[in-house]
Design brief:
The chain is built from 5 helices and no strands. The protein is mainly alpha-helical and 92 residues long. The protein has one domain. It is flat.
Length: 92
Amino acid sequence: MRLAWVPVAALALQVALWRPMTQTLSYGSIIPPLLTCIVSLFFGIVGATLLAAGPTATRRPQLLGSTMLASVPGALLVAYIIVSFVRFVVTS
């Protein structure tokens, strides 16, 4: 459960330090949140694989919650991509 908080905490820290990060990195300031979201997607895939591969008798009850928590930034990235695509299609 402790590792599941890493992507969420990293994204929260990046949001809190957005202005200094933007001033320092300029247009490159999108790279750290993007990498955080990609790693979060990876954590979600690994967690879903562990959930699907393990038998139900030995499944740890915290695994589903940890997987969902770790994949929150990745879900935000996917939602942003979908909204951007729909906006582009609607306004074109």
